Amino acid sequence: MNKNLAFGLLLLGMAFMGVAFVFVKDAVTSYSPFVFLFYRFLISTVILSVIFSKNLKQINIRTFEASFLCGIPLFFSIFFQTIGLRYTSVANSAFITGMVVLLIPIFKLIFYKKKVKFIIWISCLVAAIGLFIITLKNGLQLNIGDTWTFACAIALAFYVLQTGKFAESPNPMARVTIIMAICTIGSLFGEMMTVDAEWFPLDFNFWKGVIFSAIFGTVYMYSVQNYVQRFISEEKVALAYLTEPIFATVSAVILIDEKVNINTFLGGGLILLAMFLSELRTANLKRFLNSTKTVKSSSNSSKI
């Protein structure tokens, strides 16, 4: 697959995820996050099982191993994010989740001993500054929702790295189906331990959030990600995640009239700048600098 097409499909998934933030916040404000996640993952598992039924026949022990190692961090990332959305704004939740772009190269270096390009570190630093500006509320304090969301970013970084680790493994669609099943079981156990759980909410907004996030924010998003990571690096995936806050913020302003302050605009601008910086190739940058020196040199020679 063409790398630009792969990245484009991933960006579309981020757009769906951004809109899903709004629906999820609306749904979990009054209901248990575990109930919401249970239905979200159950629907996703059923849809994927139907679409990729042929792939499921090729499952082996390695498929289960890869699914488990990817599914556990994914479940916790979405669970932490869902809890966080009950106590913080859509914009804050989305941008703090974007901290994954900084955590991935750090974890990649620490746990996988892989080198990271210098320009990626620069873009991560710019993104971190942007996220810091966005979360500035009441001095330097983060509310409980922001803290849960930061935990989400940590778990999400591990998920992206694990997905990259198994990207070349055969049968990625069977793997993502099992991952959704693991998340369904995790949500079910969590809800069984919740006192006075309301299993069948009679709220249209709840089910609207479940269906949208299941089909677009889960089935499409994670199927595409598990497939395209064969063609693009973990850093590229992380940088695609940087667009998610932009989509989420715009959706929140349009759909639920969420107020966005100047910090969000400044921080968001820095995140976009980080994306641009990350696209700069060191070789191209050197060529540009050398060409500039050549032009200056020839200009000085002509004057002589």
From TrEMBL:
The keyword Phosphoprotein does not apply. It is a multi-pass membrane protein. InterPro entries: Diverse_Substrate_Transporter (IPR051258), EamA_dom (IPR000620), EmrE-like (IPR037185). The chain crosses the membrane at residues 34-52, 64-84, 90-111, 118-136, 142-161, 173-194, 206-225, 237-256, 262-280. It holds the Pfam family EamA. It is found in: Cell membrane. It comes from the Bacteria. The keyword Lyase does not apply. Keywords: Cell membrane, Membrane, Transmembrane, Transmembrane helix. Residues 8-135, 144-277 form the EamA domain. GO terms for cellular component: plasma membrane. This is EamA/RhaT family transporter. It comes from Sphingobacterium athyrii.
